[in-house]
Amino acid sequence: MSRFQTMLERAGAWFLRSGIQEANGGVARYYRSDLGKNARVSTEITGYAVSALIEFYGRTGKEEYLAAAKRAARFLTRCAWDRRLGTFPFEYWENGGASEGRAYFFDCGIIVRGLLRAWRAVREQEFLDTAIAGGRAMLADFEGQGAFHPILALPEKRALAYEEKWSASPGCYQLKSALAWFELAEETGEPAFRQAYDCAVRRGLENNVAFLPGSAEREKVMDRLHAYLYFLEGLLPVAARPEHAGVYVAGLERVAGLLRDIAPEFARSDVYAQLLRARIYAEAAGIAPMDAEAGGGEAREASGFQLSSEDPRVDGGFGFGRKGGAILPFVNPVSTAFCVQALGVWDDRGRSLLEAEPARLI
């Protein structure tokens, strides 16, 4: 078994057996290894997990991953989707009795993309139907004056005042969520979805330069690297266009430079993984040649966040980040998904088996 296959099997076992996915199919935001408990179930993280579990299924052929993906997707359609409000609330209470009184534009797009990936894998109509409903709700609810509102208060769907932190303000990172519209347009042929994605591209291009560094605090800049890479991921369907390719390449270079500078103090595993994926996809699209030395270094760094423990709630998962040389106590499903996929496509590239389809990007 190759080193990647060993890593894949251990990470997959963590998804299936750590308890990060709860009985109702929902997935917790993270596991706190210092406290010995999961954070609350998150609708957004469950959306990511659907895509991740299907990725594991595709790489292993093991039906248990597909079964777990369907449980997560059904949680999104049957529990997380609020039919009365017509949206996906932010977090789902563990007792199933109430939802968080906010809805996030970004989260809704991630959930829709997860449901679309489930639809493509198993063709259960409720997955497509709910994805379409979610995409239409994004169109109807989040449009502001030249920007997509990041957060709505529920039940009235009132846009909250923007805040300084990136996740509470409009920004180029929202283009990752707008991929949901691009994929819905591909599935349905509805022009409104493609028009909305194209609008998100224009807005992202207008403000992406100002997004980095975006803060004088170096830890916050690291967080913004994660968000900026969302912008590059969202740009992928059109990144090969001459007017976009230069933006993509310049973005890669800016992220790589800031990451090298800040990482000795604080590093996020997902930033290494996202940057590596972005390099691989750029090469596959003919946008930029691979910097093999840099890519190899990012692969080594990402793989170093996989955890070993006698505790099955920890073993095989990936840590969120490292500060002062120590791994932080957050065993994170999104970090695990991003790192596994990045290392997987790196391995595929090395064996000339790469299929760099933007729709597969978790």
Can you characterise this structure?
The protein is mainly alpha-helical. The protein has one domain (3-360): Glycosyltransferase. It is built from twelve helices and eleven strands. The protein has helices spanning 3-17, 43-60, 63-80, 105-122, 125-141, 174-188, 191-211, 218-235, 242-262, 269-284, 292-303, 333-350; strands at residues 27-28, 31-32, 37-38, 41-42, 102-104, 151-153, 158-159, 266-268, 321-323, 326-327, 330-331. Strands 3-2-11 form a three-stranded antiparallel sheet. A hairpin with a 2-residue loop joins strand 9 and strand 10 (326-327). Helix 8 (218-235) runs parallel beside helix 10. The chain is globular. The two termini are 25 Å apart. The model has no long low-confidence stretch (mean pLDDT 96).
Give the ordered list of helices and strands.
Answer: HEEEEHHEHHEEHHHHEHHEEEH
Broad CATH class: Mainly Alpha
**Distance between the terminal alpha carbons, to the nearest Å?**
25 Å
How many strand segments?
A: 11
Structural class call reads mainly alpha
Question: What is the general shape?
Answer: globular
Strand content: 5-15%
How large is the count of helical segments? 12
- Give start-end ranges of low-pLDDT stretches: none
